[in-house]
Design the sequence.
């Protein structure tokens, strides 16, 4: 069964450093998302991406964040200068053509720890 | 800003009995609702969804009921199995846009053998 994969599973970085979180969505999916979950809190939306551009971003997704689909398979989230409060689980999700379904399928997550 | 609320942080049921997980929402623009199951250290796994044009959707042991007038949905699991023990998240979206998901805080279900 196709699945979303994410690397690394755990990333430790120092405050102020840049990190890139990587995702490989399901191959025929068209819509891509990043969410995050701070420990003990809700899963919250960061950004959605379709047709090589951002379709919506939350207020969390400020200028320190960027997303890219550098090739036909990868989808990346970059945080330019990490802060302590960026420590969270980051989930990538993808979904299919809207004519088929609206369900989003999630990867296993990357645990980001900023020290 | 709790647009999607799951008021019960935990639920414990006996194996073989029914589990009922509840979810309320405040945004009347939501028209698509989903339930996800999540194990520790894993991503949310899609379970079942329902469009606002329906009031019930069934898939095996899982049934989701939607009451639009009350802005309430529920997930029924019958019969419950120990492997169902996980955190269950309700999520909602507005179709036609980015369809970003707005999640509830989750309910931790424990099914006792």
Sequence:
């Amino acid at each position: 069964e196709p699945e979303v994969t994410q690397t690394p599973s755990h990333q430790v970085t120092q405050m102020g450093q840049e990190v890139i979180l990587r995702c490989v969505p399901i191959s025929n999916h068209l819509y891509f998302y990043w969410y995050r979950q701070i420990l003990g809190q809700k899963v919250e939306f960061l950004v959605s991406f379709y047709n090589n551009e951002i379709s919506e971003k939350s207020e969390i997704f400020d200028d320190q964040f960027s997303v890219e689909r550098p090739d036909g398979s990868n989808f990346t989230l970059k945080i330019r200068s990490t802060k302590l409060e960026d420590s969270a689980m980051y989930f990538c999700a993808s979904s299919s053509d809207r004519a088929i379904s609206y369900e989003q399928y999630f990867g296993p997550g990357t645990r980001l720890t900023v020290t | 800003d709790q647009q999607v609320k799951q008021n019960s942080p935990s639920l414990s049921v006996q194996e073989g009995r029914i589990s009922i997980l509840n979810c309320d929402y405040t945004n009347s623009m939501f028209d698509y609702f989903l339930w996800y199951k999540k194990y520790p250290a894993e991503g949310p796994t899609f379970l079942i969804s329902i469009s606002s044009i329906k009031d019930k959707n069934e898939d095996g042991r899982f049934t989701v009921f939607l009451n639009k007038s009350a802005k309430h949905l529920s997930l029924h699991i019958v019969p419950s199995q120990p492997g169902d023990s996980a955190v269950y998240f309700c999520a909602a979206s507005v179709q036609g846009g980015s369809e970003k998901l707005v999640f509830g805080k989750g309910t931790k279900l424990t099914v006792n053998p």
Summary: The interface with chain B takes residues 4, 6, 31, 33, 35, 41-45, 48, 50, 55-56, 58, 91, 93, 95, 98, 102-109 of chain A (CB under 8 Å). The mean pLDDT of chain A is 93. DSSP finds no helices and eleven strands in chain A. The radius of gyration of chain A is 13 Å.
